[in-house]
Fold:
Amino acid sequence: MNQTPKIAIIGGGASGVFCAINIKESRPEADVTVLEAGIHPLHKLSMTGGGCCNITNDFEGVGALQQVYPRGYNLLKKLFHDFDHAAAVEWFTRHGIPLYTQDDHRIFPVSNSATDVCNRLLGTLNRLGIWMLTGRKVTAISVNPDNKFSLQTSSGDDISDELFDAVVVATGGWHRDALYDSLSALGVEMLPPVPSLFSLKVKSNLLTNLMGASVANAAVQIPGQKFRAEGGLMVTHFGFSGPAILKLSSYAARHLADNNYKCDILINWLGKTEDDTRAELTDIMDVNSRKSITSAHPRGLTQRLWEYLINRAEIAPATKYSELGKKNLNKLVSTLTADIHHVSGRGQFQDEFVTCGGVSLNSVNSKTLESKNVPHLYFTGEALDVDAITGGYNLQGCWTTGYVAAKAIN
Ligand SMILES: Cc1cc2nc3c(=O)[nH]c(=O)nc-3n(C[C@H](O)[C@H](O)[C@H](O)COP(=O)(O)OP(=O)(O)OC[C@H]3O[C@@H](n4cnc5c(N)ncnc54)[C@H](O)[C@@H]3O)c2cc1C
Structure:
């Protein structure tokens, strides 16, 4: 590359801006330009963590990385040696963004403000002399005979071409657009993008009355598949949501898309084994034998949810615990631990948080994130086939890949 390399970052999101800053900090002579299609750089970052910006996670209690990164865990395992969550905490603190860790292991800025984080990052970009060109959509990328990248950009009706020595693709979750096709034409393997982290639609009259009900520790799974998740579960006006469902949608993102978001879902309302559930119910029966079964219920359930489960198990609510009998006890255990519903679609009340798919990890060097086919072409963030469950892991993926690509360019 030139003494003063011209580097383009396509996409002014979290990973692109982070990469640009890290390039320029270690190579001040580089001419770095961020090309951002939208008017506001870091738009998605400004919405993260409900506006508070869940920057990363302390990863305590994460056994295998696969638990939190359904796609990209092997790559990140390697790259975390270069830049992990501790490095991110140090980096942000050093750049005037002190952080704190919540009891649930999520890490936030002390200001609790995503806007503050965005302003600091953009301020750093400006101070370092990095060009941020907004309203510039890159529509094509090609390589000249002298190995320079030609980027075609459009801004309204204005279409222009510019040459660069190196390019970082940091476009976030993909749509099938001109740039996607252009990269495919260069030999970059692209995996079709599908949404991840969404709620599930379930049509059931029984559930309608349960709207707003929630449990803290459910277990959900897709019968006959390996996908299983645990955590909070909420009944909404259209089906199920909450951490357990979002996690399941992440683990099963590709499977659900392939099946047009139609499948069965099995709910274990208390996340306990059949034996433990039976033991708890038996204790309740012993203590409340003279009372009706609606009068006492397992801990962790609301009265409304308990009445739903009794109804679902087709047991008369007036039945006394002493009259329940083994058959009905079995029905209750089965409904509590394996309540099956049919999913008819995915929730669409908001944008998906992240996208599964994108640049295949087979087509990038796992140490540098450089394309195996096209030298000096790099990929970061969600543009890669890397995505995570909620909790700050997605942004950590952006910081790590942004840092590693920047270091490789230097
Ligand atoms: C509502 C919401 C809340 C979230 N909360 C969290 C959270 O708390 N913690 C967490 O870890 N993750 C969270 N995420 C996920 C996280 O925001 C993303 O993983 C992260 O922003 C991805 O960063 P990125 O740089 O890869 O892409 P993006 O942030 O999406 O940025 C890509 C940029 O590229 C631009 N672009 C795209 N195509 C072109 C083109 N052809 N030419 C020029 N520019 C282009 C886009 O306009 C965009 O600005 C949340 C996501 C959403 C939507």
Remarks:
- Residues 10-16, 35-38, 43-45, 47-49, 54, 137-138, 170-172, 179, 351, 353-354, 381-383, 392-395, 398 surround flavin-adenine dinucleotide (CB under 6 Å).
- The radius of gyration is 25 Å.
- Residues 198-351 form one domain.
